[in-house]
Specification:
Order of helices and strands: HEHEHHHHEHHEH
Strand order of the largest sheet: 1-2-3-4
Number of helices: 9
Structural class: alpha/beta
Number of strands: 4
Helix content: 25-40%
Strand content: 5-15%
Length: 230
C-alpha cells in the first residue's frame, strides 16, 4: 500500500539547506504525482533523519501542502542533540591549531563540510547556526521546532550496550551517536525504541528495525518462510 521513493542529497550542504530543498521537491512531487497523494511517511537514517525533520519545519513555515499529508516521521540513529564523534573532531582540530607542527593536521580536519559540522549539535534550522561563531565549542539552545500537527514522530536508536544501564553503551552509544541524542523524544514528542548490541549501520537493514517501521506504517510482516532452491 506504499510506494517507496529514495532520496540522495548533498551532505556537504547545511542540513537546513537540504531540508528546504527537500521541502520544495516534495511539493513538486505531490503536484506531479499521477493520482492524489493520500499519505506521506518520511524515513531517514542518521543525518537523513535530521534532513527529514528540517524539511517538515521548512515546509510548515512556507505552508506547503504536502506537510498536511505527512502521517509518520521515522528517524533511525539521528543525532538530534548532536554526535560526539563530530564534536571530537572539532575539539581535536582546535587543539592541533595551537602548535605549529600540528597545524597541517588541523587544516585537514577543518576541511569537514558545513553539513558534517551541523552534526556536532544537531542543527536543523537556519536559526541554529546563523550569526553564531562557526568554531564555537558549545552550542546555544536549539531552535524549538514545532511538530507537524498531523504527524507522529518515532526516534529509533541503537547501542553497543546490552541494556540501558550498560556502561559500554553509555560511553560509546552505537559508535557514532549516543542514545540520549538518538531518542531525544522531548524535541518532537516522539515515541522511541532501541536496538541493543548493535552499531549505527545495523539500523539500515536489521529485521527488528524493519518490524518497528512496518508496525508504524501498518505494513504486513514479511514472510519468514525460506524459499526452496529451484
Amino acid at each position: 500500500g506504499w510506494t517507496a521513493l529514495y532520496l540522495r542529497y548533498n551532505s556537504g550542504l547545511r542540513i537546513s539547506m537540504n531540508g528546504r530543498q527537500l521541502a520544495r521537491q516534495l511539493q513538486k512531487l505531490v503536484e506531479a504525482w499521477p493520482v492524489p497523494v493520500r499519505e506521506i511517511a518520511l524515513i531517514g537514517h542518521s543525518m537523513g533523519g535530521l534532513v527529514a525533520r528540517s524539511a517538515c519545519y521548512a515546509g510548515g513555515k512556507s505552508q506547503l501542502g504536502w506537510t498536511q499529508k505527512v502521517s509518520q516521521v521515522i528517524c533511525l540513529g539521528s543525532p538530534h542533540t548532536g554526535a560526539p564523534l563530530a564534536r571530537g573532531a572539532h575539539l581535536a582540530a582546535n587543539a592541533l591549531e595551537v602548535f605549529p607542527l600540528s597545524r597541517p593536521v588541523a587544516k585537514v580536519l577543518n576541511v569537514r563540510s558545513v553539513g558534517i559540522r551541523d552534526l556536532r549539535h544537531g542543527y536543523i534550522a537556519d536559526e541554529d547556526w546563523r550569526g553564531r561563531p562557526e568554531n564555537a565549542l558549545n552550542a546555544e539552545a536549539l531552535t524549538p521546532i514545532p511538530r507537524l500537527p498531523g504527524a507522529r514522530y518515532h526516534f529509533i536508536g541503537s547501542s553497543f550496550g546490552a541494556d540501558e544501564h550498560d556502561l559500554v553503551g553509555k560511553v560509546l552509544g552505537d559508535g557514532l551517536v549516543l542514545l540520549p541524542s538518538a531518542t531525544a523524544r522531548h524535541l518532537a514528542d516522539a515515541d522511541t525504541a532501541v536496538l541493543y548490541r548493535a552499531h549505527h549501520m545495523s539500523l539500515l537493514n536489521h529485521p527488528v528495525i524493519y518490524a518497528q517501521i512496518a508496525a508504524r506504517l501498518g505494513l504486513r510482516k514479511p514472510p519468514t518462510r525460506r524459499l526452496a532452491p529451484s
